[in-house]
Amino acid sequence: MAKVRALTDIKGIGPKLAEQLQKLNIYAVADVLFHLPFRYEDRSRVVPMGGLMPMQPAVVQGSVVGCSVVMGKRRSLLVKLQDHSGTLSLRFYHFSAAQKHQFRTGQQVRCYGEPRRGVSGLELYHPEYQLLADGEEPELEPCLTPIYPATDGITQQRLRLLHEQVLQHLRADEVDLADLLPRDWLAQWRLPSLKEALLFLHQPPRTESVEQLTNGQHPAQQRLILEELLAHQLSLHRLRAQIQADQAPALLPSHTLAQALLAQLPFTPTAAQQRVVAEIEADLAQPFPMLRLVQGDVGSGKTLVAALAASRVLEAGYQVALMAPTEILAEQHLHNMRQWFEPLSISVGWLVGKLKGKARQQALTDIASGQMQLVVGTHALFQEGVDFAKLGLIIIDEQHRFGVHQRLALREKGRLQGLSPHQLVMTATPIPRTLAMSAYADLDTSVIDELPPGRSPITTVVIPDQRRDEIVQRVASACAEGAQAYWVCTLIDESETLQCQAAELTAESLQQTLPHVRVGLVHGRMKATEKAEVMASFKAHELDLLVATTVIEVGVDVPNASLMIIENPERLGLAQLHQLRGRVGRGAAKSHCVLLYKAPLSHMGRQRLQVLRESQDGFYIAEQDLQIRGPGEMLGTRQTGLQMLRVADLMRDGALLPQVRYMAQQIWVQHPQQVEPLIARWLGDAERFANV
Ligand code: ADP
Ligand code: MG
């Protein structure tokens, strides 16, 4: 039988509408079916007024018993309706005289809206309504009404019509649509077929409850949720397979360099650091690229783990690239690595955007010749024109998740000799388990679940900005006693320029109030050399107080700093605040963090800051942050693809992930021909999007 494929095969759809539909990611008939309702309305029955519940939209019908214009804060038209079970008011803030005259006493009205509690009992604000002639009973909807994501120029009405047409073709098996899940899964997991699921979701029978559909629990929804999560999981499997199809240098165990490195340190690695290093070494011994993620709370000592991993690779004669998210952090890594490796005759250098002219040329030459063995840098490391002689390991100290495309680009570096580098990713933000399972499914994971000994806990207090003067005095006395402090200015909603200005003003005014305190300033619009100078003098204790924007967020390490003030903490995410706070509590001195919020604070705002007061466990805080803000925000991820989930919701559906993992394994091994179609169906748009 002939199948309908192109949109223009559908009656009433011309090239113009077909083009408009592309805005909704609808390119072909099958895409219409995957353009799913984001909510439903129940217009299938009339609810007696006595049975209405606040916030639960419903169809009601009754006769007018009163109609008047009331004054109040805003003038409004109030229409009183009655049925056999009770009364209800309709309220219109915008209305015409003609409208007012429609509502004559005794007039039958049917309307649809969401009841809210108002002065006159339950009220519907600006409901949709229909005036009925005597005895008229218009038909109700036969099923729940789907509400679709719409766009300019395409109304709900138009979309619903389109869907009805396509569903008819689907019922007649005229749509080119394959069920991509293995047949025996349907019985095994009690899932409906794709066709059944789609028919249900576009036109749920009126016996279904709208509320339950919102929870995503219906088997028809579960079927699509599983399929979507499966497709995401498979795309990460595929990425992993693509990378691991390459060869990498298999590095035999040898610990001379690592031992020499450790011998210089005033401390020994924690058990957790040792375990993670051992996991990395096992990977490095394989003849294909390591893909490993090291998670560790702030201060857990990821830098040392990176250095120990690097030493194995350097010792074998390969280069190592260490990439940081910002120039400040790159500079700090450079400093650390030089201190650790130069005494061992390893040459350490760097490449960042600000490196220009001769210095840059020299760096590029040294990287290309292999003269520079350990190369620290920012994204600049992976730009065109940077060629490594013999790259064995890439370490990414990341702030946010690296995109899939970026990871594939990394693989290209160092493939000259037919060998791909090993990849080690370190996250400063602890990732909750459910998210880690999906966002990082392409990586093996190690966790540094222990902090180095001798850390003192940080006491966190939440204080309104009316008490700012008091806090300023506290900074003064802490500095007088030889401690150092951070003062962090945040203004995340505003432009970076405003944020930097705010920091400048704060630094000036603090210096005026506290003439004996040596105040420094660092923000994102300063030249990198200026920033580095300020950071160096703070580290050398030539400054007592460092006023900063959130540029100090990750990795800055000054153990003598034991006090941090964060202005407007309510504007930042919890994980970010936790990162910031991790700048103190690095020495033996008792540390404090003051969250100086702008009063008044909402209940939710208070609750969030409370989490920080109560806990110093990055994973717990991250879980809370995830609950409050959702996954996309938290990972800071345009790139994860996860924010583009269409039917699944990681918070709601997290419990399905173990099943999804299992399913992905099964497909990968037993039904490999389904991998590409599944990815194309669910991530096709993402890929189209990424290629724009
Ligand atoms: P992060 O995991 O946040 O990147 P860092 O690597 O910056 O943490 O380490 C924080 C501090 O702890 C640094 O000053 C580092 O030298 C120190 N450190 C790392 N490992 C240990 C250890 N095993 N014992 C004591 N101090 C350590
Ligand atoms: Mg770090």
Task: Summarize it.
This protein is α/β, with parallel strands linked by helices and 692 residues long. It is 40% helix and 18% strand.
Describe this structure in words.
By secondary structure, the chain is α/β, with parallel strands linked by helices. It has 4 domains: 7-41 and 144-212, no CATH class; 49-132, OB fold (Dihydrolipoamide Acetyltransferase, E2P), CATH 2.40.50.140; 256-448, 3-Layer(aba) Sandwich (Rossmann fold); 458-615, Rossmann fold. Helices cover 40% and strands 18% of the residues. The protein contains 25 helices and 22 strands. α6 crosses α8 (219-244) and α8 (219-244) crosses α25 (675-691). The radius of gyration is 31 Å and the shape is globular. The model is unreliable at 636-641 and 687-692 (pLDDT under 50).
